[in-house]
Design a protein that fits this description.
This protein is α+β, with helices and mostly antiparallel strands. The protein has a single domain, classed as Glutaredoxin. The protein has a two-stranded antiparallel ribbon with strand order 1-2. Strand 1 and strand 2 form a beta hairpin. The longest helix has 13 residues. It starts with a helix and ends with a helix.
Length: about 60
Protein backbone atom coordinates (compact mmCIF):
# COMPACT_ATOMS: atom_id res chain seq x y z
CA UNK A 1 0.00 0.00 0.00
CA UNK A 2 2.80 2.43 0.85
CA UNK A 3 4.57 1.71 -2.45
CA UNK A 4 1.37 2.25 -4.40
CA UNK A 5 0.60 5.50 -2.59
CA UNK A 6 4.08 6.90 -3.11
CA UNK A 7 3.96 5.89 -6.78
CA UNK A 8 0.65 7.70 -7.24
CA UNK A 9 2.18 10.80 -5.68
CA UNK A 10 5.21 10.56 -8.01
CA UNK A 11 7.63 10.06 -5.13
CA UNK A 12 10.82 8.09 -5.78
CA UNK A 13 11.58 5.44 -3.18
CA UNK A 14 13.81 2.49 -2.37
CA UNK A 15 12.30 -0.82 -1.32
CA UNK A 16 14.14 -3.03 1.14
CA UNK A 17 12.64 -6.50 1.43
CA UNK A 18 13.53 -7.41 5.01
CA UNK A 19 12.72 -11.07 4.44
CA UNK A 20 15.59 -11.37 1.96
CA UNK A 21 17.76 -8.30 2.70
CA UNK A 22 19.61 -8.97 5.95
CA UNK A 23 21.14 -5.48 6.04
CA UNK A 24 17.70 -3.95 5.53
CA UNK A 25 16.31 -6.10 8.33
CA UNK A 26 19.15 -5.04 10.64
CA UNK A 27 18.43 -1.37 9.82
CA UNK A 28 14.75 -1.84 10.63
CA UNK A 29 15.53 -3.51 13.95
CA UNK A 30 18.11 -0.83 14.81
CA UNK A 31 15.35 1.77 14.32
CA UNK A 32 13.31 -0.10 16.93
CA UNK A 33 10.80 -1.79 14.61
CA UNK A 34 10.07 -5.48 14.25
CA UNK A 35 7.38 -5.45 11.56
CA UNK A 36 6.68 -3.79 8.25
CA UNK A 37 5.95 -1.48 6.64
CA UNK A 38 8.32 1.15 7.93
CA UNK A 39 8.66 4.24 5.76
CA UNK A 40 11.61 6.59 6.20
CA UNK A 41 11.05 10.10 4.90
CA UNK A 42 13.85 12.50 5.72
CA UNK A 43 14.57 11.94 9.40
CA UNK A 44 11.07 10.61 10.15
CA UNK A 45 10.35 6.92 10.59
CA UNK A 46 6.73 6.00 10.02
CA UNK A 47 5.39 2.57 10.96
CA UNK A 48 2.33 1.21 9.17
CA UNK A 49 0.37 2.94 6.43
CA UNK A 50 -1.04 6.28 7.57
CA UNK A 51 -1.67 8.67 4.69
CA UNK A 52 -1.80 11.83 6.87
CA UNK A 53 1.57 11.00 8.45
CA UNK A 54 3.15 10.27 5.07
CA UNK A 55 1.75 13.48 3.58
CA UNK A 56 2.99 15.51 6.54
CA UNK A 57 6.49 14.00 6.32
CA UNK A 58 6.62 14.63 2.56
CA UNK A 59 5.48 18.23 3.03
CA UNK A 60 8.16 18.79 5.69
CA UNK A 61 10.79 17.35 3.36
CA UNK A 62 9.74 19.71 0.56
CA UNK A 63 10.07 22.80 2.78
CA UNK A 64 13.57 21.92 4.04
Amino acid sequence: MVKGYLSLRGVEFVVKNVSTDLEGRAEMIAMGFDSTPVTVIGDQRLPGFEVPAIDKALAALMTD
